[in-house]
Design goal:
It is a single chain. By secondary structure, this protein is an alpha+beta fold. The protein has 4 domains: 2-49, no CATH class; 68-157, Double Stranded RNA Binding Domain (2-Layer Sandwich), CATH 3.30.160; 172-244, Double Stranded RNA Binding Domain (2-Layer Sandwich), CATH 3.30.160; 277-452, Nucleotidyltransferase, domain 5. 42% of the residues lie in helices and 19% in strands. The chain contains 14 helices and 15 strands. It has helices spanning 22-29, 33-45, 52-61, 68-77, 81-88, 135-152, 172-183, 235-253, 334-348, 365-373, 381-401, 416-422, 426-432, 454-512; strands spanning 2-6, 12-16, 102-108, 113-120, 126-132, 156-157, 168-169, 197-205, 212-220, 226-232, 291-297, 301-308, 311-320, 357-362, 404-409. The strands form 5 sheets. It has a 5-stranded mixed sheet with strand order 13-12-11-14-15. The protein has a 3-stranded antiparallel sheet with strand order 3-4-5. A hairpin with a 2-residue loop joins strand 12 and strand 13. It starts with a strand and ends in a 6-residue tail after the last helix. The model is unreliable at 1-51, 187-193, 265-287 and 447-453 (pLDDT under 50).
C-alpha cells in the first residue's frame, strides 16, 4: 500500500506504509533506491529545499501552549506571573512545604519543544503546562496558565482600569474586607447588629495519631450560608487556607465578577413587613428582591406564599397531595416533596417573575443548595436522577423568562407560616398573616406529575398515540361532514329548481283560466 504526496515541480514522493517495495517506489518516482533516500534526507534536512523551513516552523508553533495571541493577552493581565504564584504560596513556606508547587521539564519533538509542567497541590491537585522552544519562555507560559487558572477560581484579583494597582493574589486581610463589605449590605432589623460571618480557631488533638493541630473555620450566614474548614500545624496557615476557601466559595456562588471584585448593585437591603408576627423573633437580613417566596411541604400537601415589593397584600396557595399524580412518598422522600413544592409554586407565579429577582426561603437545606449550586453537589445518584428533569425544567423557565432566583435556608421554626399552609391550616395562616388575600391562588398541578418514572413516560407516549388516533378520527369525521354538507347543498339546489318550476307552472295556469263571471 503506497501513500503519495504531491510536492512542487510535479515531483512525487512515495512512502511505503505496509511494505518496503522499492520496485514500486522506483516505478512511481523514476529513481532508484539510493537517489530516493538521498532526496528524502536532503528534503528533511532543509539544505536543498528552503521552502520547507517555514512549514517546519509553522508545525512547531502549533505545539506552543498557550498560542502567541493568547499568551500576549495573559501577559497584559499578569506582567509578573511568577511573582503572583510565589506570593500566593508564600505562607506555606517553612510550614507545610509539601503543598508548595514544583516544576518539571521535559522535551519532545526531538528536543525542539520544551514542556514545563507546574504541579499544583493546593487547593486541588492539578498539573498546568506551558510549551515553547525556549525553556525560559516555556516556564513563563506555565506560570501564565497557572495565574489564569487561579483567577478563574477566585484566588487572584485583577485591578480595575482606573486603578493603578498590580495584579496580586488574595490574602487573609483582603478576604476579611470582602466579607465585611458583604455584611455592610445588610440592614439591622429590630435592634440587631449586622453579623454576617464568624471565624472560629480551635486547637485540637487527633485521636488516631495523637497529633495536635489547629482547626480554622469560617461560617458565612448571608446571603447564602456556608462553612469552610482548614487544619494545619500552624494557626496562621490554617486561617489563611480558610480565608482562601471562603473567597473561592463566593466566586462559585457568583458574587465576584470576572476580575474577582465583589459585584455591586445586586446585594442591597430590604426593610419591610416589620409589623408581621415573625419580625419580633427573626432577624430577616434580605437582599433587594422583587419577590420573596416561602415554601414548605408536609405529608398532607404543599404550601407557599409570595411577598411582592409592589403590593402590600400577600398571595398564597395550599394544595393536598394528589396520590394518582405523584409516584413518591412525601413522608419518605422529603427532598423530592420540598423540591416539588418549590417548583409548583415557582411555575404557578412565573408570569410575575419575568425579568425579576426572586428569593426563595425553605427549611430544607439540600433543596436550597440545589437551587443555588445545581445538582452536581448531590452525592446520591438515585436522588440526582429523580430530580434531574425537574431541575432542567427550572433552568428552562429561568432562561426563557430571564428570572434570577436565589435560595436562602431558614430554620423550621422561622418558616411557620408556610408550614401551616402545607398542613392545610388556612385559618391559622390567615391569623398569622393578616395581609394575605382572602382566596388562594390556584396551583398548576401539571408539575405534580413524576416525569422521571419510566412507567409514566410510557403512559405519556400511549396517551400521545391515542390523541393522534383521535385526531385522525376527527379529521375523517370532518371530511364525512364536508361530504354530507356538499350533498345537502346539492339537494337544496335541486329543491330551488323544483320550486322555480312549480312557480312557472302556477303562473301558466293563472293565464289559462279566466276569472269567473258574476
Amino acid at each position: 500500500m503506497v501513500h503519495q504526496v504531491f510536492l512542487q515541480y510535479n515531483t512525487v514522493r512515495a512512502c511505503c506504509l505496509l511494505s518496503r517495495n522499492w520496485l514500486t517506489l522506483s516505478q512511481l518516482c523514476g529513481v532508484d533506491k539510493k537517489q530516493f533516500c538521498s532526496n528524502t534526507s536532503d528534503s528533511h534536512s532543509g539544505q536543498n529545499n528552503e521552502n520547507l523551513l517555514p512549514f517546519k516552523e509553522k508545525m512547531i508553533r502549533k505545539h506552543h501552549y498557550p498560542q502567541e495571541e493568547h499568551a500576549r493577552l495573559l501577559q497584559q493581565k499578569f506582567p509578573e506571573p511568577k511573582k503572583v504564584v510565589d506570593d500566593l504560596f508564600a505562607p506555606f513556606e517553612n510550614v507545610d512545604e509539601s503543598l508548595l508547587p514544583n516544576i518539571e521539564k521535559t522535551h519532545k519533538l526531538g528536543n525542539r519543544i520544551c514542556v514545563t509542567k507546574l504541579n499544583l497541590k493546593w487547593p486541588k491537585s492539578v498539573n498546568i503546562v506551558g510549551k515553547h522552544e525556549d525553556e525560559n519562555t516555556s516556564t513563563e507560559y506555565a506560570y501564565l496558565n497557572t495565574c489564569d487558572f487561579l483567577t478563574k477560581i477566585g484566588l487572584v484579583k485583577i485591578p480595575m482600569a482606573n486603578e493603578e494597582l498590580t495584579t496580586k493574589p488574595y490574602d487573609a486581610d483582603n478576604v476579611i474586607k470582602v466579607l465585611e463589605e458583604l455584611a455592610s449590605m445588610q440592614t439591622a432589623i429590630a435592634g440587631f447588629e449586622t453579623s454576617n460571618f464568624r471565624v472560629l480557631n480551635l486547637l485540637q488533638n487527633d485521636k488516631e495519631d495523637d497529633d495536635i493541630f489547629w482547626s480554622s473555620s469560617i461560617r458565612v450566614a448571608w446571603p447564602v450560608s456556608f462553612t469552610v474548614n482548614s487544619r494545619s500545624a500552624c494557626l496562621s496557615l490554617a486561617y489563611y487556607q480558610s480565608c482562601l476557601k471562603a473567597i473561592m466559595k463566593l466566586k462559585g456562588l457568583g458574587y465576584l465578577d470576572q476580575k474577582n471584585h465583589l459585584k455591586r448593585g445586586i446585594l442591597l437591603s430590604l426593610e419591610r413587613y416589620g409589623t408581621y408576627p415573625w419580625s419580633s423573633s427573626q432577624n430577616r437580613d434580605l437582599t433587594n428582591p422583587d419577590f420573596e417566596l416561602f415554601v414548605d411541604a408536609s405529608k398532607h400537601g404543599i404550601g407557599a406564599y409570595l411577598i411582592s415589593k409592589d403590593d402590600d397584600r400577600i398571595r398564597w396557595m395550599a394544595d393536598r397531595w394528589v396520590e394518582n399524580k405523584i409516584k413518591f412518598d412525601p413522608m419518605i422522600c422529603s427532598t423530592m416533596s420540598e423540591f416539588y413544592a418549590f417548583l409548583t409554586a415557582f411555575y404557578t407565579w412565573k408570569h410575575k417573575f419575568v425579568n425579576k429577582k426572586i428569593i426563595v426561603y425553605g427549611d430544607n437545606e439540600l433543596v436550597i443548595n440545589i437551587i443555588n449550586q445545581g445538582l452536581f453537589m448531590l452525592q446520591r445518584p438515585k436522588l440526582k436522577h429523580s430530580l434531574y428533569k425537574l431541575y432542567l425544567l427550572l433552568i428552562k423557565i429561568c432562561h426563557e423568562n430571564n428570572i434570577t432566583v436565589v435560595g436562602m435556608h431558614v430554620p423550621r421554626f422561622k418558616n411557620v407560616a408556610a408550614d401551616q399552609l402545607s398542613r392545610i391550616h388556612v385559618n391559622t395562616f390567615k391569623q398569622m398573616v393578616p395581609a394575605a388575600y382572602e382566596n388562594p391562588k390556584k396551583s398548576k398541578k401539571l408539575w405534580f406529575y413524576d416525569f422521571t418514572s419510566t412507567q409514566n413516560i410510557e403512559k405519556l407516549k400511549k396517551d400521545g398515540e391515542n390523541l393522534e388516533e383521535k385526531g385522525e378520527n376527527l379529521e375523517e369525521k370532518c371530511e364525512n361532514l364536508d361530504e354530507k354538507c356538499e350533498n345537502l347543498e346539492g339537494k337544496c339546489e335541486n329543491l330551488d329548481e323544483k320550486c322555480e318550476y312549480l312557480d312557472e307552472k302556477g303562473e301558466n295556469l293563472d293565464e289559462k283560466d279566466p276569472e269567473p263571471s258574476r
